[in-house]
């Protein structure tokens, strides 16, 4: 028989949610992309110890709620712009079997959202050579994840006015699920599926 929750459990749960809400606000309003940093900063702002912090999944849930509540016309226009860019980049990188994921798929992007793409190559160097051939300036971004499902490299560049985060995996990793900050499997789409989804939405790029 499970023990009944105590008043201290309730207080701790409320505190965790408060930190999760504040961390989500920081991510949405300040563009912080490090969930651990956002949680610690949220705890400091609330004047509580940096322990018993919420999980990334709790923060991601509050972030999705925040973005649904505070969406405006600018966010909708930005999403349409990002989806148009996604089509262009995926067609350009077709030989690398691109998948689109993140905000342009779930529709919850904001002013700080990046266009997130996954591609598969024999080596990251092949992709860099391809980018140089397109005369696209790019930079390396830190790969924070380790383990068998870690990407070989992350490159960032601008496609017009849209920032692109290009995550490069080996061909062997294509069948493996890739996870979000929360540890959940991210939805991802090949070009054909993405085009079909956009064909059924009101904000499909013209």
Write up what this structure looks like:
By secondary structure, the chain is α+β, with helices and mostly antiparallel strands. It is 45% helix and 16% strand. The chain has 2 domains: 7-69; 73-199, 2-Layer Sandwich (Beta Polymerase, domain 2). It contains 7 helices and 6 strands; from the N terminus they run ααααβαβαββββα. Strands 3-4-5-2-1-6 form a 6-stranded mixed beta sheet. Strand 4 (153-159) and strand 5 form a beta hairpin. The radius of gyration is 19 Å and the shape is globular. The model has no long low-confidence stretch (mean pLDDT 85). It comes from Uliginosibacterium flavum. This is UDP-N-acetylmuramate--alanine ligase.
Kindly list the characteristics that best describe this protein.
7 helices, 45% helix
Specify the helix fraction band: 40-55%
The poorly predicted ranges are none
CATH H level, superfamily name of the largest domain: Beta Polymerase, domain 2
Strand-and-helix sequence, N→C? HHHHEHEHEEEEH
CA gyration radius, whole angstroms: 19 Å
**What's the CATH C level of the largest domain?**
Alpha Beta
Q: How is the topology of this model organized?
A:
Layout: H1 7-30, H2 35-46, H3 56-69, H4 73-92, E1 99-101, H5 103-106, E2 115-121, H6 124-133, E3 138-141, E4 153-159, E5 162-170, E6 188-189, H7 191-199
Parallel strand pairs: 2-5
Antiparallel strand pairs: 1-2, 1-6, 3-4, 4-5
Organism: Uliginosibacterium flavum
Protein name: UDP-N-acetylmuramate--alanine ligase
